[in-house]
Write a structure and sequence with these properties.
Chain A: It holds the Pfam family oligo_HPY. The complex is a heterodimer of chains A (624) and B (326). Chain A is an alpha/beta fold. Chain A contains 22 helices and 24 strands. Chain B has a domain of 191 residues: MetI-like (MetI-like fold, Orthogonal Bundle). Chain B starts with a helix and ends in a 7-residue tail after the last helix. The chains are: A alpha/beta (624), B mainly alpha (326).
Chain lengths: 624, 326
């Protein structure tokens, strides 16, 4: 770290929430500084206090939150004690902010140009025409195509990535000294994410701006940060140079976070979790309850177990492999791969699946066109396999999953389950079929009925499919299911809101298992979870597959998660499968440009990559 | 947009036929006809002979089964003729024309007053949310909202017309109205209209300001309000510009829905104040089983209701850029 005066210098910041249940110490003694032109990445999981830290700087805290002590010095001014009118002058001018949700962060009833120009008129006292001209220039700078046209667009007319560019343009409009980016790429596709990161890096280096980059994703941190601050339950547990943190993490939590991300090149069959590195024990302190962290060592036995537990990849039969250009030859497949026997019948056959949504026009709503959400998708899944469907938002992966289960109606093609045509089944037959096929959704908050106890959620499918004789038997079964997903039988009487996101997703898994299915579609089932929780749920899914002989279709936008989970992988784009093959091969030797693009856009946190980025910057600096 | 408009008009026409058909069926099934009602209230010594009754039934078209009666009425309407009132012996159109002015005077001034007062009130109570002043005002408004306007009307009449004698008790014009100057006439009507307008307004004032406040509170929790704050805007411009513009969207639906009530007036209030408006007319027509007048009014209210909804949907696309009809 250099000795130049920092742009922002935070000392012993404590921000507490005073709620009816007591005081929540959201930010508990955090200190850091950001120098000019530098980027500090703050990493932590939901509830770690990273966003509250940034809102404390902006003085935009909710009314229930209060800065108890500490100082936030911005270019020598203490923001904590600054009167509101002066703080307003700083907001949007000297410090600006971009948020996680580009979809909802722009006012839907004003044009995007107006919203950016508003900040320019406010802080630079320019005329409206001048502000508009500046907005067009900014749009060009952040890479919005046809900026003269787009300034007059409303937010809903733009894609998520473009909206985030508008947010960046707005944040940059007054040439701020400090940019706070709160999960700015979390809601975006990886290819868009890598473009946004590029823009932020370029603007930082050309404008000498400092960035406070908040994220839960260590991969993104590696792509952009100079220094890293790791937060855990409101406290800073590690703070240092990015290379040092990735190379030699000190705190067990940092070690756990680094290890539990499924990397594209991981050798593990099960993921290490934070609990492999530390245990936390509740203790009483003078300030109230707290936790004590006890470091654990990931011993060799456990490490061995993570790499060898369970099975390796289970690939399609020989002739199908050959047909897709991955013949069973020496050295072509990863060594722990096995094949489905040649005479095996697929559990699920999807043939030329089409889901076209009509576009209607005119007085009589004539169908003038179709949106081809799924456009001729075919693949087989064999018993016990995991097939990964990966692609960016809108590629048709979710619609494919739903069409297989007839949750949306297919407009063409067939789905055969054990040779039976699913689309030809009628009412009762289809209901019986649903016992075999289940789905786990993405949103652990929206997919459980908030007014049903966990017991009724879990036993309802048993009643429908007549799987138990008595209420007592159903309850026993439900209790056993909860234990299977590492929850406790006493949770049966509770309601969904009493659980965390990860626990709810376990309940969703238990609900899917309640009818003892053979086949489960996991539709972005871990995408809403923190990385450490994601690792636990992925391990759980693998364990259940092994115990129950389940077959999965695993749908995700995250290539590294799909690669970790899936034996075979289908890369989708614009309603079609662009590449299909064994996951390891697709990652190692992608055949299609689109697949390569996806792989390249996935954030990398290898030390070589971080070093390369640093060298690039050093060169750029000495050049200018 | 134009396709959508045409489709809506088409669907609206069908809806109109269904509504008028149902209403016609219902009123024809009510006990009593215009003839029997007249006899029931009339002098018992002047009863009509059986032959006269038959003759009149034929003249009024009451001898035919009611579906045919509906067809008669509908075919007249198609020729822009609402027919003649049975009890008042004059065209329904002229009858309505005479009553529409007084009702509009009440409803329009009440609507304008409601908007002019409730919007600032709603914004103020959002900005001052949970302060003692705001809670007091909200509670008072809520109490007013739960007080029926016909009860309030009676109390106001007792206080201002009977006890204090500041305002006239009822009617729209004084007896000496014709002798007054133009200014004097206007002032006379103003005094007469004051109490009815207050009674018309206070309930909806409470409703609208609460509606605006609850919508505003929903809006200020949105992410884009946080963006506006991070931009450095003042609390005031965030509230008035960014938040209220979004609250307009649900407010527009209400505007469409109030359109029919502008002309229908309020039966009870008009009766209490003896206001010569549409509400009174509707009530009298129902009592007299004056089928053409009832149907004429029904048709007008239905058209207005449908037009109001169409208007609301059109305004929607004006205030919300996300809504387009194509």
């Amino acid at each position: 770290m250099s000795t130049a005066p920092p742009v922002i210098d935070i000392q012993n910041l404590r921000t507490y929430f005073h709620t009816e249940e007591g005081t929540v110490r959201a930010v508990n003694d955090v200190s850091f500084r950001v120098e000019r032109g530098h980027t500090l990445g703050i990493v932590g999981e939901s509830g770690s206090g990273k966003s509250v830290t940034s809102l404390s700087i902006m003085q935009l805290l909710a009314t229930s939150a209060e800065i108890e002590s500490g100082s936030i010095s911005f270019l020598g001014k203490d923001l904590v004690r600054l009167p509101e009118p002066e703080m307003r002058d700083i907001r949007g001018k000297d410090i600006s902010m971009i948020f996680q949700e580009p979809m909802t962060s722009l006012n839907p009833v004003f044009t995007v140009g107006d919203q950016v120009a508003e900040a320019i008129v406010l802080h630079q006292k320019t005329s409206k025409d001048e502000a508009r001209k500046k907005t067009v220039d900014l749009f060009r700078e952040v890479g919005i195509p046809e900026p003269e046209l787009r300034v007059d667009y409303y937010p809903h007319q733009m894609s998520g990535g473009q909206k985030q560019r508008v947010m960046i343009a707005m944040a940059l409009s007054c040439n701020p000294q400090l940019l706070i980016a709160d999960e700015p790429t979390t809601a975006l596709d990886v290819t868009i994410q890598s473009q946004i990161l590029d823009i932020l890096r370029r603007l930082r280096d050309t404008r000498g701006m400092s960035i406070l980059f908040i994220t839960h994703d260590l991969g993104v941190i590696a792509e952009i940060a100079d220094d890293v601050l790791v937060m855990y339950r409101g406290k800073m547990v590690e703070y240092g140079d990015v290379l040092q943190i990735f190379e030699n993490p000190q705190h067990p939590y940092t070690k756990g976070l680094l290890a539990c991300r499924p990397r594209l090149d991981t050798k593990y069959r099960l993921l290490p979790t934070v609990s492999d590195f530390m245990e936390s024990e509740p203790i009483e302190t003078p300030d109230g309850p707290d936790v004590k962290i006890i470091e654990k060592k990931l011993d060799d036995v456990r490490l061995q177990q993570l790499m060898t537990h369970g099975r390796g990849r289970l690939l399609h039969p020989r002739d199908e492999l050959a047909a897709m250009g991955h013949p069973w030859e020496e050295g072509h497949h990863s060594p722990d791969s096995t094949m489905v026997p040649d005479d095996a019948k697929p559990l699920l056959e999807v043939k030329d699946l089409e889901v076209h949504f009509p576009v209607r026009k005119g007085v009589f709503s004539r169908v003038v066109d179709h949106v081809k959400a799924v456009d001729g998708v075919s693949f087989n899944v064999y018993r016990g396999q995991t097939l990964g469907l990966v692609g960016e938002s809108g590629c048709g992966k979710t619609t494919t999953g739903r069409a297989i289960l007839r949750l949306v109606n297919a407009t063409g093609g067939h789905v055969l389950y054990e040779g039976r045509d699913v689309f030809a089944l009628r009412g009762g037959e289809m209901r019986a079929m649903r016992r075999n096929m289940q789905i786990i959704f993405q949103d652990p908050y929206g997919s459980l009925n908030p007014r049903m106890t966990i017991e009724s959620t879990l036993t309802e499918p048993m009643v429908i499919h007549n799987l138990a004789k008595s209420k007592a038997e159903r309850r026993d079964k439900a209790a056993a299911l909860l234990e299977e997903v590492d929850l406790k039988p006493e949770h049966l009487r509770r309601y969904p809101h009493e659980f965390s996101g990860g626990q709810r997703q376990r309940i969703s898994i238990a609900r899917a298992l309640a009818v003892e299915p053979d086949f489960i579609i996991c539709d972005e089932s871990v995408s809403a979870l923190d990385v450490s929780v994601q690792a636990q749920v992925l391990n759980l899914l693998k364990k259940l597959q092994e115990d129950r002989g389940l077959t999965y279709i695993f749908i995700s936008h995250d290539l590294s998660v799909v690669k970790f989970m899936a034996d075979m992988m289908a890369v989708m784009n614009a309603g079609k499968i662009v590449e299909f093959g064994p996951s390891d091969n697709i990652y190692a030797v992608p055949k299609e440009d689109y697949t390569r693009k996806l792989i390249n856009a996935t954030p990398r946190d290898s030390l070589e990559h971080i070093r390369a980025l640093q060298e690039q910057r050093a060169k750029l600096r000495s050049g200018t | 947009m134009i396709h959508y408009f045409i489709r809506r008009l088409f669907v609206g026409a069908i809806t109109l036929v269904l509504i008028t058909f149902l209403v016609y069926a219902l009123i024809r099934m009510m006990p009593g006809t215009p003839l029997t009602i007249v006899q029931a209230v009339g002098d018992p010594s002047m009863q009509m002979s059986e032959a006269d009754q038959k003759r009149l039934e034929k003249a009024y078209g009451l001898d035919k089964p009611w579906p045919l009666g509906y067809l008669d009425w509908a075919s007249k309407v198609a020729r822009f003729d609402l027919g003649n009132s049975l009890s008042r012996k004059e065209p329904v159109v002229r009858l309505i024309g005479r009553r529409i002015g007084p009702t509009l005077l009440l409803t329009v001034s009440s609507l304008v007053l409601t908007y002019v007062l409730s919007i600032p009130l709603g914004l103020w109570s959002t900005a001052r949310s949970n302060t003692i002043a705001e809670r007091t005002v909200s509670m008072l408004l809520y109490m007013l909202y739960s007080l029926p306007s016909f009860v309030a009307a009676l109390y106001l009449q007792i206080l201002f017309a009977v006890k204090l004698e500041w305002l006239p008790l009822r009617g729209m014009k004084s007896i000496d109205y014709a002798d007054l100057s133009a200014m004097g006439q206007a002032w006379d009507i103003f005094l007469h209209a004051l109490l009815p307008v207050i009674c018309f307004t206070y309930g909806s004032l409470a409703y609208y300001s609460r509606f605006i406040k609850s919508n505003m509170q929903e809006v200020i929790r949105q992410d884009y309000i946080r963006t506006a704050k991070a931009k450095g805007l003042t609390e005031r411009s965030i509230l008035v510009k960014h938040a209220f513009r979004n609250t307009l969207i649900p407010l527009v639906t209400l505007v469409g829905l109030t359109l029919p009530s502008l002309l229908s007036g309020a039966i009870i209030l008009e009766m209490i104040f003896s206001w010569p408006g549409m509400g009174t007319l509707f009530f009298e027509a129902l009592n007299e089983r004056d089928y053409p007048t009832i149907m004429g009014l029904t048709l007008m209210f239905s058209v207005l209701t449908l037009a109001g909804q169409l208007l609301a949907d059109m305004l929607y696309s004006v205030v919300d850029p996300r809504v387009t009809y194509s």
